[in-house]
Amino acid sequence: MPVRKIAYCVLEKTPAVVIVAVEGMLMYFATGVAKSVFTQINPLCAAWYRFGFLAVMMLAWRRPWRREVRQTLPNTRRDWLITAGCGLAIVAMNTMFYLAISEMNMGMAVAIEFIGPLGVAVISGRNWRERIGVAIAAAGVVLLAGVSIASPDGGSFLIGLAAILVGGTMWGIYIVMGRKVAHAGSPLNRLSVAMCIGFAAQSLFLAVPAVRGLFQPPASATWLVDEGAWGIAHLLLLMLVVSVLSSFFPYVIDQVVMRKTTPGTFSVMQSMYPAVAVGVGLMFGEVPGIGELIGVGCVMLAVVVTFSGDEHASNRSHADLQASMDTAA
C-alpha cells in the first residue's frame, strides 16, 4: 500500500483531538529546541530559516509547476486572495511567536496567543457544547495570561506581549483562511503556494539580515563562532529539524483536521496548546506555578466538554480528503 494511502487511513481513523495533541507535543518540543538557537542568531532570522525550509519542502513535495497540479490552483481573484492571506497569516504568526518567546516563557506566550483561536471559536460556535467549552477555555486562558503578566520571567516583556498579541490575531486569521483553503479542493497544492507567497513577503524584510547573521553572529553566539563552517551547518540542520516538526507536519495535518471539524470545535480543540506548551516546557526547565496548573486544568476540561459529542466528517469530506492525498504522487 502506498505511503500516502497508509497516512490517509491513519489520519482518518485517529480522533481529531488525539491528532492535535500529538501535533502540539511535536510542535512545542521543536519550539524549545529553537529557543536554544536564539543565542546564536536573532529570533526573527531563525523564523526566516524555519519558514524557508518549510516553503522548500512544500514545493518539493507538491511541485505546483506540474500541469496537473496547476489545474488545482486558485483560478479567481478571490481564491488567490484567500490563498495569499493564508500564507501571510502563517508567516506573520510564526515570526511574531519567535519574537515573543525570546522575551517570555513559552507556556506564557502560547496562552496569550490563544486570543486568536478563542475569538474564532466565540464567533463561529453554534451549539451549547462549543459555547460552554469556549467559556471554560476562556477562564483557563485568562488565568494563564494573568500569571504570565504577573511573572514576566525577565526580558523586554512588553515587546513580547505586543508580538504575541499580533501573533494571536494572525492565528485566528489563519484558522479562518486555512479552513477555506482546506475546503477549496486539493488543499495541499494550494497550501504550498500559500507558503511561497508568505515566504516571499517575509524575505523582503529578513533575508539579508538572516544570511548576514550566519557570518556576522551576535556577541551572544558561542558554538556558531567556535565551530566555524560546522557551526553554520549545525545551526541550519537544527532549523531544518525544527521546521519539519513545528511547521511541515503540523500545517499538513491541520488541513486534515480542519476538514473533520467545525471552525469553533477546531479552535477549542487547539485550546489544549497552552497545556501542552507548559508540559513540554518542563523538559526545558520551565516549572509552572499553581495558577498555571489551574489554568491548564480549565483548558483540558474545555476540550472534554467540547468533544464529548463530536461527530465524524461527512462522506463527501472523506472523499475530498482522499482525492487531495492522491495528488501527492
UniProtKB/TrEMBL annotation:
Residues 29-149, 159-307 form the EamA domain. The chain crosses the membrane at residues 7-29, 41-60, 80-101, 107-125, 132-151, 157-176, 188-211, 231-253, 265-284, 290-308. It is found in: Membrane. Keywords: Membrane, Transmembrane, Transmembrane helix. Pfam families: EamA. InterPro entries: AA-Vitamin_Transporters (IPR050638), EamA_dom (IPR000620), EmrE-like (IPR037185). Its main location: membrane. It is a multi-pass membrane protein. It comes from the Bacteria. Belongs to the EamA transporter family. PANTHER family: EAMA DOMAIN-CONTAINING PROTEIN (PTHR32322:SF2), INNER MEMBRANE TRANSPORTER (PTHR32322). This is EamA family transporter. It comes from Bifidobacterium saimiriisciurei.
